[in-house]
Amino acid sequence: MENLISLVNKIQRACTALGDHGEASALPTLWDSLPAIAVVGGQSSGKSSVLESIVGKDFLPRGSGIVTRRPLVLQLHKLDEGSREYAEFLHLQRKRFTDFAAVRKEIQDETDRETGRSKQISSVPIHLSIYSPNVVNLTLIDLPGLTKVAVEGQPDSIVQDIENMVRSYIEKPNSIILAISPANQDLATSDAIKISREVDPTGERTIGVLTKIDLMDKGTDAVDILEGKAYRLKFPWVGVVNRSQADINKNVDMIAARRREREYFANTPEYKHLAHRMGSEHLAKILSKHLETVIKSKIPGIQSLINKTVAELETELSRLGKPIAADAGGKLYSIMEICRLFDQIFKEHLDGVRSGGDRIYNVFDNQLPAALKRLQFDKQLSMENIRKLITEADGYQPHLIAPEQGYRRLIESTLVTIRGPAEASVDAVHALLKDLVHKAINETVELKQYPALRVEVGNAAIDSLDRMRDQSKKAALQLVDMECSYLTVDFFRKLPQDVEKGGNPTHSIFDRYNDSYLRRIGTTVLSYINMVCAGLRNSIPKSVVYCQVREAKRSLLDHFFAELGKMEQKKLSSLLNEDPAVMERRTALAKRLELYRAAQAEIDTVAWSK
Q: What backbone phi and psi angles, to 5 degrees, belong to 150?
């Protein structure tokens, strides 16, 4: 099962390289879902020595005060026997370190790059991988040592800042806490035990390590703690004996230090019965085994998170659209395809698949009839206006039987007023079509990807609608003008003549202009006008639909397509210029999706093999 830890290490490194570590998201990041061991301890608790003992190399900066000022994510990879040891930093991916003194210097230098040459801290982690035949597969996160007071050069908030940083790692439910406490201090005052108990009251996630056992006062020992009597945790305590400062100064190597550690526990009467589960070598093995167990138990949750995130990333990538084609033909095809999608959405609005098309019918069913009703025919057919027009039409020769020219002038002057509602209907439909164009543009996801093309398509569609409006307005006004230019003769032929009504043709011609006579003319003209309005109420919508709606569905972007075929590649490219932020976002999401899919496949393989 060593491959399982290697797989998690691989995924963690990939997550970090892609910025998936700690990125705000609606879902937890993959990094946060992967178990890891967080190393916690107070300053001078021997934390660095424990890590170096596990690795078997001197590679951590040393000194007084706060030495670890940034989290160090340490991934150990076991190589085959005989392989050469080396280290790699994530920020220097192509460089291998075989000199571990250079590793120590790079950790210090990289810390200074982030924090400056001060005693400040930073939550930005350093990622280090060590490959060696002498390690077990393991991931450890070395955190800054907890402290109780700020020293010179540090802000007063340093104590709380470090505690907050440590908590951000050990509060995660998938985090395993390696609590380092010196045996030569009262365990009740241990910083590591105190903070571990706060986030893990039952000790389910905590593994306790006692350092400096060999430095305890004479007559005292740590047997009660190591046997779990003084402070019980779920997992047995592990005691270690690290190199002393004198050993470090003498460059005592790790192999000799581990041998002396084994001899100490085997030969010390108080610890002889516990020797088989003491020492840094045993600690490394139980940490690796425990990490494997935790990873196995978390696989279902990790699978669920990966599956959800893959779906989320695929949806986001789909929303952002495909990357741009490189050649002119590909660019032209992409533009045409996007325009086709826009045109389809626009048609769906008109056809009722999407909302908006029903408002056009409202123009014909409500607005046009209401506008016709509002026309003030009474003003045109007032007694004064009828008398005036009839008299003027007669000229020097009064009409003999019926004032035909007067009728014509009355009808024509009244019908002209219908031009207003006809034009208003055209304009109302034009405004609605423009609104539907804007809606369709906003709903065409692909157009959001290319702002320049979005503007061009919008302008082209509006220009087409403007041309259709002008043509429609001509047609609608022609319908009105047709009614003015030729009157329906049958309507008047069916009207009763004056003689049939009992009139006396021998009366003076001037009697024909009495109020009763003029009122009858007005009534006749109004009846004719109403008949014409009823006809126009049906024919104007037909004209508008034919000239505007039908034409918009048929050829909204035809003119744009014709111009598109003449464009040079440079112009085509300019239409497909994306927002750089969108391009960067798509690239990042594609890489992250590739990572998650690879993780999905490998985790699934492990899950099936269990």
A: -85, 140
Which residues are bridge partners to 206 per DSSP? 177
Answer yes or no: is pLDDT of 195 > 70. Answer: yes
Does 326 have pLDDT greater than 70? no
How does 422-459 read in b/e, with b if 16+ C-beta sit within 10 Å?
A: bbebbebbbebbbebbebbbebbebbbbbeebbebbbe
* CA pair distance 35, 290, nearest whole angstrom: 10
Give the amino acid at 427: D
User: Which two structure tokens, joined as six digits, stand for 83?
Assistant: 């392989």
| 152 touches 164 (CB < 8 A) | no
Closest by CA position to 38, among listed 1, 4, 65, 72: 72
Classify residue 525 as exposed, middle or buried by CB count within 10 Å of its CB (0-12, 13-18, 19+): buried
Strands 86-89 and 126-132: antiparallel
Give the residues across from 238 on adjacent strands. 209
CA atoms within 13 A on the CB side of 180: 28
Q: Does residue 451 sit in helix, strand or coil?
A: helix
CB 241 within 8 A of CB 260: yes
Side-chain half-sphere exposure of 4, counting CA atoms within 13 A: 25
Q: Are 597 and 311 in contact (CB under 8 A)?
A: no
| CA-based nearest residue to 573, from 456, 437, 443, 461 | 456
For a pLDDT cut of 70, what percent of the chain falls above it? 84
pTM greater than 0.85 (yes/no): no
474, 544 in Cβ contact below 8 A?
A: no
Q: What is the pLDDT of residue 82?
A: 87
Can you tell me which residue has the tokens 């699978």? 303
Q: 483: part of which helix (H) or strand (E)?
A: helix 451-485
pLDDT tens track for 167-176: 999 998 888 9
In angstroms, the Cα distances linking 229 to 220, 223, 226, 271, 373 are 15, 8, 8, 15, 99
For residue 284, count other CB atoms closer than 10 A to its CB: 22
pLDDT band of 22, cuts 50, 70, 90: very low
DSSP string, 298-311: HHHHHHHHHHHHHH
HSE value, Cβ hemisphere, 13 Å, CA-based, for 496: 7
Of the candidates 85, 91, 100, the residue with the CA atom closest to the CA atom of residue 73: 91
Distance CA 141, CA 75 (A): 8
What is each CA distance from 234 to 94, 265, 292, in whole angstroms? 42, 23, 17
Nearest to 448 by CA among 271, 269, 321: 321
> Residues in the chain, how many?
610
> For residue 461, what is the enclosing H or E element?
helix 451-485
Distance CA 580, CA 355 (A): 33
Task: Provide the residue type at 196 as one letter.
Answer: S
Answer yes or no: are the C-beta atoms of 525 and 381 closer than 8 Å. yes
Rg (CA), the chain: 45
Residue 34 CA to residue 354 CA, distance in Å, equals 45
Decide: 345 and 354 in contact? Cβ < 8 Å. Answer: yes
